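Appendix B. Raw example, untouched.
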Amino acid sequence: MTSRTFVVGVDATDEGGRALEWARAAAYANDSIVAVHAWSLPTMVGIDTLAMIPVDDMERVAAQGLAELIDRIDDDRIEPMAVQGHAGRAIVDVAAERNADVVAVGHQGSGQATMVLGSTANHVIHHAECPVVVCRGDHAPEPLHVVVGVDDHDLEDGENESVRALRFAAMMFPEARIDAVHAWFVPMVAAGRFSNAGGDFDDLDADAIAVVERVIAAADVDPAVTVTARPVNGTPEFALIEESREADLIVVGSRGRGGFRGLLLGSTSLDLASHSHSPVAIVR
């Protein structure tokens, strides 16, 4: 398999450590992992405050701390990189420079506000050109069971974000068990129109499987990769969050683009990044 590049945001928090743990578990022996630690000058306030800020010393301390962390891990695949500047921008810039296959960042917040109000994960999700894995939960397991949420809208030309998400999962984790799922949901106020609920729901399951099969066909996944089509019940957000209780990784495509547009619209990917029980990969 061709060597792949993982770019990981690393800091002193548990979330930063979890992102690096995930990358090490997901990467193969011939892959490379670039561990990026961003540092910045302190903001000093007060007209009576004058100080000589030892920039070289700060850079040296940041680089030394990162090197010591990597030395303790003792993994030859990891390259430490200390960068001055905003953490989110630094990670995005390094990912672009290294032509990264995936970026991994940690996030432990439990609401959309934590993703919107200036977090590093939020910046990377909305500005990285490659897929982004948001590492959530108490651990970062090797992705042996991957669940991909799919939809067949705008598939007339054979391409949409679900196709790209499934291709990503199949190419990055070819040895994993991959479940491609489509969610259907019947609101309680509408359920009364079903004359034979059991039979009608079976039809909805069949329709969902047909949606998944269309996406699988469009993705043209290598036959050696095991992909199972499966229906799930609930809104896409709820169904995938429930799937994340058992899955090692959830993968979704996103149509959102950078800036406020992606933030204000809200999306399944943003809900998952805020509430998933396992790491989440967001693919553009």
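End of appendix B.
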